[in-house]
TrEMBL record, chain A:
Quaternary structure note: Part of a SCF (SKP1-cullin-F-box) protein ligase complex.
Metabolic or biological pathway: Protein modification; protein ubiquitination
Gene3D superfamilies according to UniProt: Potassium Channel Kv1.1, Chain A
Family: Belongs to the SKP1 family.
Protein's UniProt name: SKP1-like protein
UniProt domain SKP1 component dimerisation: residue ranges: 122-166
Function: Involved in ubiquitination and subsequent proteasomal degradation of target proteins. Together with CUL1, RBX1 and a F-box protein, it forms a SCF E3 ubiquitin ligase complex. The functional specificity of this complex depends on the type of F-box protein. In the SCF complex, it serves as an adapter that links the F-box protein to CUL1.
The keyword Metal-binding is annotated on this UniProt entry: no
A family per Pfam: Skp1_POZ
Keyword Chloroplast: no
UniProtKB/TrEMBL annotation, chain B:
Protein name, per record: F-box domain-containing protein
PANTHER family referenced in this protein's UniProt entry, alphabetically: F-BOX DOMAIN-CONTAINING PROTEIN (PTHR46344:SF28), OS02G0202900 PROTEIN (PTHR46344)
Region ranges (Disordered): 242-261
Pfam families registered for this protein in UniProt: F-box, Kelch_1
Keyword Iron attached: no
Keywords: Kelch repeat, Repeat, Signal
Domain (F-box) ranges: 82-119
Signal peptide: 1-40
Superkingdom as given in the UniProt entry: Eukaryota
InterPro entries xrefs: F-box_dom, Kelch-typ_b-propeller, Kelch_1
Amino acid sequence: MSTESKEILVGESSQAKPEKKTIVLMASDGDEFVVDVDDITNQSEMIRNLISDMGGTDGLQVPLLNVTAPVLAKLLELFNVSNKNDDDEEVTQKVKELMEAELNMMIDVLGAANYIEATSFFDLSCKVLADKFKGMSVEEVREFLNIECDFTEEELQQIHAENAWAFD
Amino acid sequence: MDYSRVDREGFLFSSLPPSSRKGAVLALLLLLLLLPLSEESKHQIWTPGATMMMGCVKRVIKARIPCWICAFIRRTCETIIPGLPDDLALRCLAKISHGYHGLLECVSKKWKRAIRSMDYAHIKARERWCGDWLFVLGADSPALWHAYDPDADRWHPLPRMPGFTDDDELCRFSCVSVSNKFLVIGGCHISHSEKRCSETRSLMVFDPFKKQWKVAANMQTARTDFACAVISDKVYVAGGSNSNSPEGLATAEVYDPDADK
């Protein structure tokens, strides 16, 4: 386990009122992230349920076995943006930027968001990814996701015929 | 032996995309099963010739097995979106409206299966992501409906109605949309190939989630040119005519889509 401990305070309010409750999230590689309880429960249903099951937040450490430190850091950063803005515009933009820059990271963040049951954030990110496909041609989608085309020429033509109008 | 095990594991893992790790674990189990077997046989047949042969066999196994195992794993364990579990990928794709489905189906076999799967239909139905559909029956293909997706600004054909061929035509029918379904009711089924025209009692229902037609409960009487409306999720048909009463029908019927009655 790494001894390094990173501290990320989610939400500016936590700096103004230091007495606010915090919990520790542990990434799979042992890195610890200190987050504001209100800010994380605002997003993650899993942690909200966990806190209510445990009956409090005192010294609570949540190990997230499926989430590595860089992914968790990115996820918390995006939560932070989401919590600061009432509308989804800003965070949508940030997710979009992440997708363009590092697709793999974005997909890992998506998986992590699902893991901690951050439903609204997950849906928003899904939408960003889905919208990306809409503006693309078949070849572009394949290239974007690094997918091999396993159709033969005839099979492709058959699908084209079945959906003839869609390719006009 | 330990070294070669590590070597094989290393080869397997390094040559695999991260998405296939589940498959790699499976392959590892397979390999671990293989290893004790070869070890045992080596002790039993302890002659120089046999050892040499074993060595050859092992070299062949080492060179060949990982290749085909990898190929097999790639084929069976490929994910829809690399790096994302398939259930999440499906939820993602379910946000895309029907006008794009033809496009997405062309990406790969896996994608085609996914878009046409019942899981996909279920997610769409559960989340009520039906999208808007405009149904049009064109004159150039009189038995084939086309759908317009305003979100995608695209047209695409629907599957053929059950019981219709290229030469068939449906006219003087009514259609309505009720509780996320599209209903085509009654009318006159013209078969150009058989030179036949029959008035029909039939009710065909298109489900936009499953993208399938279904034949539902018939009307009591065949009707053409009749009135049709939806009132509080029930379909009312009234009037019209058929060959038995060319002067017009004075009856009305009601259809409940939930009960299919």
